[in-house]
Known about the structure:
Blueprint (H helix, E strand, L loop, with lengths): L16 E6 L13 E6 L18 H10 L4 E3 L5 E3 L4 E8 L2 E7 L13 H9 L4 H9 L38 E5 L17 H7 L4 H9 L3 H11 L22 E9 L3 E6 L12 E5 L6 H6 L5 E2 L5 H8 L4 E16 L13 H11 L2 H9 L21 H8 L9 H11 L5 E5 L5 H17 L2 E4 L19 E7 L8 H4 L13 H11 L4 H18 L2 E14 L24
Parallel strand pairs: 2-10, 13-14, 13-15
Antiparallel strand pairs: 1-2, 1-11, 3-4, 5-6, 6-7, 8-9, 9-10, 11-16, 12-15, 12-16
Amino acid sequence: MKKNKVYSLIAASAAALLALSACASGDTGADGDKLESISFTTGAEEYAGYNNLLSSTYSTGNSVVNDRLMMGFGYFDAEGVWQHGTELGDYEKLSDDPLTVKYTVDEDAVYEGGTPMTCEDFYMDWVAQNPKWIRDAQQAAGNVDEDGNGLPLFDHISGSDTYAYPVPKGPECNAGDREFTITFTAPNPDWELIIGGVLPSHVMAKKLDMTKEELFQALKDENFEVAQKLADNWNNWYSKTPGVVPSAEEAPSFGPFRYKADGWKAGEYITLERNPDWWGEPAGVDELVFRMIAPEGQLQALDNQDVNVIEPQATQDSLESLEKMDGVKVLRGSTMIWEHLDFNFGEGSVFAEGAGGKALREAFALCVPRQEIVDKLIKPLDPEAEVMNAREYFSFNDDYKEVVNFAYDGRYDQVDIEAAKAKIAESGVDKPVVRLGYSAPNQRRADQVALIKASCDQAGFEIKDAGSSEFFAPGGGLDTGNYDVALFAWSGSGQVVSGQNIYSSKGQQNYHSWNSPVIDEEWNKVATSLDPKVWLEAKKVIEKELWNELFNIPVFAHPGIVAHTDGLKNVERNVTQSGVVWNAEKWTW
């Protein structure tokens, strides 16, 4: 499942490559048939390790490996719809007020090696997200932030506000239980995403010379000394030496695959094999190999049959190359990654309220050739592509049309140079210079900037291509406000309230000094309700306000491409960050 983290920036060349290839003729399985393997690569990124919840290991590239080792209670299907009930178990909501959820773990669920998955493991997962007693003990020990608040003890990618604080008692259960409940202090629209598969507490207990049950009791007793020792081990639960495969005792699988001994060659590949202790349907092939191949080498690797599945960056050149290959099947369509142009409202920007303000933002929106961008750059890859007119909904979502009809009147659908000129005059800014920043090199974004310049310069703007390889780096542009418009993408997470972090006045990902009391109020309605009707009505108002005040300009949903060797079955594109590998255990020849 996707981790409890809001939208993440999509880096260029983050697409993954998969390959499914037969081993050498001398390799055979237990039944005498030729051993079959699937290879997968995340570009040139090295695998980081078993604990994918650390700030240093949480990434799409690392997740694609670990998600095959670990099973949660649910997953996003190919269309980005959340499905619950898996081999791990299921959950049911017992009450709305207070929000109470019961989880049941399958009676056959075990970690590799045979240790049952039980309540203790889920309790350690809650503690690792730094509940109040941890933060209070940190404060008492003098480990505080600049505001005097206790610092997190565990280096967990989810903040305390995600799960640990809203569920103050943690999982309610006894040692050895296969069932537990959690009770929230307030409604949480994303309650289904809070708990997934959990790391094994018996591994950590052994490092502390304790039993699983003893560790559980110490944590329930709020023993800070034990928590400190646990955190020291938990925070270092990753692979410090690339190429060294962790043992089953150190990193046991609880999914359809496990690590293959001696199956990791640093910088080249890491190999998984069927987990003999997996209680679900066996994987379709014996091995899953994650190959580390730079994006520019992916198409050639597929053509050479070095790999069998790739998910490269979708460009017209890559599509044309793939369509010329023999014995290759190409899948394409939209994704939940979407392109947008964000205005900088901060001091120093030409669009700040003390400068060109809203009138200049309107002028820019009137000259941006969104339809031309889609027609020239996106439709060759996805014939069904269309200009995007919402932020919280995609065109394939059921509520998309209703939201757009309420929030947006189509005033920026067509380029209107004369209207743009009038708005520039209204702004009082003479020959406004617009620095259009993005992460470079990126040919498609450079092409977008060129199209915007060709149009908007006619209206009286001077568009400057401010693309930089350091744009997303600390001090590189986005975080310093050294731009007027930022061109980048967000990846839809499937979470109900993830957008709050972008559009609310205090959102951590509100990079552009934006502030709207209306939007803050509406997001609060969403975040404190379990009613989808409330979410929809509030988000309609949010979208309308974003259009009226022009926080940003949505452009298009990114097209996606998957290509695989013909004859490989069950390969499906997935519109979420999970990518094509989301169901790799079902692949077979």
